[in-house]
Design brief:
- The protein is α/β, with parallel strands linked by helices.
- It has a single domain, classed as Alpha-Beta Complex (Spore Coat Polysaccharide Biosynthesis Protein SpsA, Chain A), CATH 3.90.550.
- The protein has nine helices and seven strands.
- It has a seven-stranded mixed sheet with strand order 3-2-1-4-6-5-7.
- Strand 1, helix 1 and strand 2 form a beta-alpha-beta unit.
- It starts with 9 loop residues before the first strand and ends in a 10-residue tail after the last helix.
- 42% of the residues are buried.
Length: 248
Amino acid sequence: MSRYIPSKKIYAMVISYNSAPVMGKLYKRIDKKNFDKIYFFDDNSQDNSAEVAKKYNWIVINNKKNLGHGGNLKKALKTVFKDGADYAVEIHADNQYSPNEVFKAKSMIKNNYDLIIGSRFKKKNPFLKDGMPFLRYFTNKILSFVTSILLNINLTEFHTGCKIYSKNFCKTVPVYKNSDSYLFSFQVILQASFYKKKYDEISISSSYKGYKTSCNYLNGLIYILGNFKFIIIYILAKFKLIKSKVFI
């Protein structure tokens, strides 16, 4: 069992695409005592990431074809919960977020929260504190503020890949109907609100130096447009004006 929450089985899901250059650094950073098992999900990388990962004591799964960020996450969630996890911690292999933030969520996990969201904006300014690029900081801040106001969801960040999922959340919410793209990460937050699940934020740190595999500007623009689309769908579904596969 996890050292911090012995009553829960906590699995790590390392989400990877072309992350071979920083694999060793990630392995050293992960506090193995936080997790019952560590899975490594490689999304058909072109840089031999899966083979490199086999050097470590991780359970390595290499997708035969690229599933997309959301598709890889959905496969990861299905796999770890089928294997007996109570909670699954999303860890990005490029080291943008600390892999050990789970200890900050100890009380939430003990109290059976459904979704725990890692926020770079909670109690700090990541542009000043962590060196977040200004354009990314400004866009994230504005989009998160607009989403919070429009949907009346009291969160400081909606655009983070650092999350902790409960088995109950993925069992009772149609997360597997979500997008296979980066939009998945936005949709699950809206779903937590829509289905009145137990969710909250923890403050996390981040790093933008060195090798990173974040989405490019084109994918970022597509992601932003997708955000507004699902904000509209959320509002219409809330008032029962439409039916949606993600907001039933």
